[in-house]
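Box S1 | Example of a co-folding query
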Amino acid sequence: MKICVLPGDGIGQEIVDQALRVLEKVGEKFGQTFETTEALIGGCAIDAEGVPLPAETIAKCKDADAVLLGAVGGPKWDTIDPAIRPEKGLLGIRKELNLFANLRPANLFKQLADACYLRPDIVARGLDVMVVRELTGGIYFGEPRFDGEKDGERFGYNTMTYYEHEIRRIAKVAFEAARKRSGRVCSVDKANVLDVSRVWREIVIDEHKNYSDVELSHMYVDNAAMQLVRDPSQFDVIVTGNLFGDILSDAAAAITGSIGMLPSASLGEGNPGIFEPIHGSAPDIAGQDKANPLATILSVAMMLRHAFDMTDEADCIEQAVEKTLEQGYRTGDIWQEGGKAVGCVEMGNAVLENL
Ligand code: IPM
Ligand code: MG
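Box S1 (continued) | Returned holo structure for magnesium ion
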């Protein structure tokens, strides 16, 4: 199994280091070997090569069976030419590999219930949402786009576009995912205003004909944002476009207590998937051994499950993480009174021990 590792910027390297230790240990335990190779993406690639996504990185990713990514970006590159911002590296590799389906599970570890931002009576109803975000289309990539001037003043626009085939294939992923969960899909759009959303809704409804065992509902995105914080237990799978999914997945993650806990998988067809924490590069704590490596470690579990069909190995990692939380180990982002305060490396050590 070949894995291309893209540590990226900020805390990227430190969290990926811990995740790779976990990967190696789980390999030893189950008799699997993982061959890893590293490549540059984001700000570090801009510094070294002048572009956020060097051709060599694309080639190495395409040559691998899966990609493990840390995070990209930081204040150092905030004022750079927008055409080569670090984020362009991330968007570029998703597009290059045609990873149109982004799975972002947000569930609450019971050990972290007290860290949850919601009222205890709301938390008690449960929180286990899977955001299925369309990742290679919509307003992120739509043409035309413009950043310039018109009529003597600054002027800009982007275009939200969706072809039927793009909607159909992401709807399929959502319905399939729901079948393995509680069997409910909520499609989120803005069909009361946007034409593109009306097309979205129509195609989702049409594709649903192939999944009549799954319950389908629809919600406008503003309402969905509100419902997510009011009563997340009503959701199972949320399927939505690129921009709405970006926003709702952060909201879904944050209500679980920390964005530092949640992994993600970006999948396509015929290309290796990318597995990465949903949080960013946290430049404010980079290099200080403070970052929470658990989202990246859980991303390795998602990689084993989705890319390699290694269910036992994935379960093993997830259980080791739970046990580590059970034992009270806490990085700063999830720290509570009475917890054992640890840094990134110590958190990694604890997970290794529990493996
Ligand atoms: C994410 C991030 C990216 C996105 C940024 C860094 C380009 O916010 O993965 O959610 O908007 O997709
Ligand atoms: Mg985001």
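Residues 1-116+270-355 form a domain with the Isopropylmalate Dehydrogenase fold (CATH 3.40.718.10). The two ends are 20 Å apart (CA to CA).
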